Amino acid sequence: MDDSERPVLAVRNINKQYGQGCVNCRGAKGEGLLKNYCPVCGTVYACRDISFEVYAGEILGIVGESGSGKSTMMECLYFDQEVSSGEAYIASYKGGETNVFEESSQQKRYIRNHLMGKVYQNPLMSLKMNFSSIGNIAEKLISAGNRNVGQMKVRGEELLEHVNIPVYRMKEAPKNFSGGMQQRVQIAKALSNNPPLLLLDEVTTGLDLSVQASVLDLIKSIQRQLKISMIIVSHDLGVIRMLADRTLVMLDGQVIEQGLTDQILEDPQHGYTQKLVQSLL
Amino acid sequence: MKIEYNFAFFDEGSKREIRRATLKAIAIPGYQVPFASREMPIARGWGTGGLQLTLSLVGKEDILKVIDQGSDESVNAVNIKKLIALTTGIVVTDETTEATIIQSRHRIPETPLQEDQILVLQVPIPEPLRYYEPSEYETKKLHAEHEYSGAWLMLFEQIVNYGAMSTGADHPVMVHSRYVMAPSPIPRFDNPKLNQNKALILLGAGREKKVYAVPPYTKVASLDFADYPFRVETFQDKCCRLCGAKDVFLDELLNDITGEALYQCNDTSYCLQRMNGISKE
């Protein structure tokens, strides 16, 4: 396959279950179940056979109701959690031939530090609230092997400027910042190594509308400038409509519909998607 | 009634357990080995880690020296010496060259150590990443995966805030190119003495229940950046007011009334030795 056609990230049959399973649900991966948990043994099937690809420069949106397994899937991709089974291939890692879930924890850390960036819904997850903002950005650069303070400061200031945080506040700790600013520091941190893939998990949830707009604008402009591939998880169809090229719809841990965003929003096929689109209006 | 203690206070089983932990620590330079820290007749934080190491090592032929902040005569040093001398009957000394076991807090003696000597350092916080990551479970993983960006990040923060690395003591070191280690609160001035030292250096943390070691002739490098190299404290144009020594760690004593600053060797036994030498000539 030509390298330019190869997807930046290819995910094959990710499963994530909490619990051992029982006769009622085991083997079927919960397919026979009504919801994503087994009423007999209480095992939760958070992700069930999720497969998709992300291509270079593309934004993939993932929508679904709360509890549908969106964030769990993202956490699995960023190695915050271990998958129960499944494969993922990253084009920039060993030519996209190796299943990254089977790599050692050191290698996973390498992938996280060099080839991915993640913005969490809760800034506490990725920022050290007692360290300075520029230190938070430097952390990612240091973990990628940079040992030059001058370079890291220049890069940090550049990034903070890029996300509209005044450079004179760079020594301040993110705990003194507003929610929107913390979110922007997170974005700057995630971008610091120019990763080929950015994971955004509910980045605008909990922010007021004007701040939401500014964060979304920022993401859009970054994508245009840097041509980074992104996965955006949201339960807000407005965010998906504005940003995503393609969209997956998730329900009870399964992908129930996928396609071009316009297509999904204009002509939803699955009953749940139809309800979701209607509720937007 | 006089209580009869076993030789060196501990029962033989306790000594063996501590020695086993010590052997493991020597086998893996810089790795923190957990051990069953005992209740001691001195308070936690007063050198129980060092004291337990010393007691487990001490034999009838040994000569002991105990230093507290460079001084042989401070309360802590005197009482530790008394305890060991009373329960073993061994000889204590102030001379660095005579001693076979040197227990120390906050300093490595100015006189270079020899191959037949053991330096025992008392450690309050053995985990160099503690300020960066409060969870022991997480820091163990970070050590295992050789992920030390947190240690450099702490130095980066100092440079951003103060323009230089400002660790007054306990500047983190990389041991044998593998483990980052807290060298106990010795001043930066003493860090270079750890590198390729002829003596065995053992570090014990009683409250935190950890033992770690730097075997003789081990490479120990202080963490720094390409554009901010590690530097020791300098006492330019200053010398000891008693013995005239230069290139040693000096204490600054301020005269309350005149505001005058006086400088004096921190290592009192070294100072005394020099003064005796000068008067003999």
Automatic annotation (TrEMBL), chain A:
Residues 28-277 form the ABC transporter domain. The keyword ATP-binding applies. Keywords: ATP-binding, Nucleotide-binding. The keyword ATP-binding applies. GO terms for molecular function: ATP binding; ATP hydrolysis activity. One of its GO terms (biological process) is organic phosphonate catabolic process. Pfam families: ABC_tran. PROSITE patterns: ABC_TRANSPORTER_1 (PS00211), ABC_TRANSPORTER_2 (PS50893). It comes from the Bacteria. InterPro entries: AAA+_ATPase, ABC_transporter-like_ATP-bd, ABC_transporter-like_CS, P-loop_NTPase, PhnK. This is Putative phosphonates utilization ATP-binding protein PhnK. It comes from Desulfosporosinus acididurans.
Automatic annotation (TrEMBL), chain B:
It comes from the Bacteria. Its EC number is 4.7.1.1. Keywords: Lyase. The keyword Disulfide bond does not apply. GO terms for molecular function: 4 iron, 4 sulfur cluster binding; alpha-D-ribose 1-methylphosphonate 5-phosphate C-P-lyase activity. It holds the Pfam family PhnJ. GO terms for biological process: organic phosphonate catabolic process. InterPro entries: PhnJ. The keyword Lyase applies. This is Alpha-D-ribose 1-methylphosphonate 5-phosphate C-P lyase. It comes from Desulfosporosinus acididurans. The lineage of its organism: Bacteria, Bacillati, Bacillota, Clostridia, Eubacteriales.
